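Recap quiz, item 2
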Amino acid sequence: MNENTFAVLGDVCYSISPDELITAQNAYVVCDGGKCAGVFEKLPERYSDIPVIDMSGKLLTPGFVDLHLHAPQYSYRGTGMDLELLEWLESITFPEEAGYADTEYAIRAYRIFTDDLKRSPTTRACVFATIHADATLELMRMLDECGMAAYVGKVNMDRNSPDNYRETTRGSLEETEKWLKSCEQAGFLAEDSRVRPIITPRFVPSCTDELMCGLGKLAASHGLAVQSHLSENISEVEWVSELAPDAAGYADAYDRFGLFGGDVKTVMAHCIYLRDDEMELMRQRGVFAAHSPQSNMNLRSGIAPMRKLLERGIKCGLASDLAGGSSINMFKAVTDAIQVSKLYWRLIDDTKAPLSFRESFYLATKGGGEFFTKTGSFEEGYEFDLLAIDDSMAATPLKFGIVERLERTMYLGHAGFIKAKFVAGRRII
Amino acid sequence: MNENTFAVLGDVCYSISPDELITAQNAYVVCDGGKCAGVFEKLPERYSDIPVIDMSGKLLTPGFVDLHLHAPQYSYRGTGMDLELLEWLESITFPEEAGYADTEYAIRAYRIFTDDLKRSPTTRACVFATIHADATLELMRMLDECGMAAYVGKVNMDRNSPDNYRETTRGSLEETEKWLKSCEQAGFLAEDSRVRPIITPRFVPSCTDELMCGLGKLAASHGLAVQSHLSENISEVEWVSELAPDAAGYADAYDRFGLFGGDVKTVMAHCIYLRDDEMELMRQRGVFAAHSPQSNMNLRSGIAPMRKLLERGIKCGLASDLAGGSSINMFKAVTDAIQVSKLYWRLIDDTKAPLSFRESFYLATKGGGEFFTKTGSFEEGYEFDLLAIDDSMAATPLKFGIVERLERTMYLGHAGFIKAKFVAGRRII
């Protein structure tokens, strides 16, 4: 038995597939060396002497996975929401992100973000930083210190942005290599590091072919994952087709540089306006779609065809997309995804059934969790990421079963409901 | 100068029209006898000696007006959300509401609701209770005790509902008269009562013509306001046309019984699938539309054409529609209304501009406030309904102006942000 072995006792609820929610009243979730050893009504003989953390009456769920967010945008979350994507980037996003050249400012701002993320339902996240290597490294250190698991990317961009927030092609690649070297020194490339670097071309409009080519080589040579944006907004998709006339489409504009799945683990945010052949490419390459419903409403982007993506076998998860999305609370991403899928069904295609509550919960846990390998469930061998949730904070005279309690937690819950939080077997709240 | 005269000092923000947001940094909002006497940078001579409640650094906004909610549904908010309207009514709503025949249960459940409403941004609400006169009167007493202003309706329904939750036509009218008599005895018909009865036919499918006719007469004879539902869901609209073949439409099914504005102040929830002539009738009769975006997503109803309703000069406000909507937080109604209006623009009609933040804030305060006469603004003579909001609870390294602070409060805020709350000049938090 591993040293870090214990059990948490409570009312257990987790997904094993989009349609299968497993529940167990007053049961033990066992952590054996940072991994989940299973859920038990009664502790098995071999675990009979382990410490038990008593969370009786609390809901125990896997940690939530936020597949896409921008840490530097957290400072202005909930403002400028009357703007559409491209004007919002120009007038708010780029000016603020440029300020992270000042590492002291970055630390101050990131401290607020990491404190809130630590308290939130999220245990793992895919994070965009800014173009600045130093500030990005600080963010990684802060996430590591507060016990979170994350892929964090220094952003690359060498065109179509203001002078004070644009790199040269060569400068961008050099800064990325410098950052990766610092990551190595800081231990973020180690096998067991919970915080890891990820190659992060902002999106096609921000990156020349030469930069994309260089980033593709870096991803391959270092065995790194990739994150970016794909088909978020109609104007953006049109712009990409002008910027990359030789590419077969938006997806291909990444794929031709080795930045679209296959050997390179990849997550793409949004995926609203994909053609059929692009969806097929995503499936073949195992590219993850990070569905960000709140952001897609705020920036007037539209509604991603989640049922279609799921039917085609594309790997999907949910995302806050801070600060296109305003809320860091992934419970809310679960209900936002359900709500917009109902509008998709009502307004766009009534052959595409809305996401059920079970499906959306699955996407926010095991679905997105697959990007971090075995994460987001309590099946044996999964990372021990666990939340203990006090759903009695939403008072009611009724007695609900575990499934209803979980559903109402998604609709009504927030950070204040979380009474304990574990990431890879380590308690951080 | 009236006895109840004081000022609150803080950063003031209120609407005078959908496009005009007035702000004043570190200013005084003066209450003179329960009414707002205006906003002043410096206290005028005549008020120089009044008590000042120092809320420096807090945002001061008018109270929020929730134009439509179901108090007995609060117990199961956030559950059963995978169902559509009519199946949700059958399988969840009616069985739970039937339980309010037990007045003790009703008091226990309503206590949770009124406690949460008191803490919420809402100062005034239009409330559906159940068919039970006794439980409804208790709810009115509890709202009154906690200092809220509200129209509260005993629900009427004599068809298309389960045996244990359906009245006879005569029984329904008699129970309503009994309830009104109790209201009179309890002082709820007095001129200055903040809690008042409102005639509440559930919706056309639940009420026979005979019942509607009787309710129309009661509203007229007692000078009471009316609330109901209108054009929420496509199946419901079709059902109404079968149930009321002689009516010119859903609106007319109320209008022909004197339950649709004119001399009878009326608010109708939802208003999603109105024909042009029905909108015109609403405008002529001064009927209020209670827009409930969250509920309309949850129950797969659709998106109300708010820009169209506003362009036509129809009086509009926002609503939580508990428990079709799960959240009692009217800040969220403001952002939900903006978000769905963006999807309306993107998916239904791109000639209808999304609601701006200013417009949606207006709808949640002064827009809906008009149903309570002069409410929802800090103009002179308005009811002194005020919130002091600590927006610093959403931490940021940036310094924002008042308008941005208000916007981020709508996106990020909740009951915990509210440090003081006044209704008609009386402090209740």
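The longest helix of chain B spans residues 330-347.
The radius of gyration of chain B is 21 Å.
End of item.
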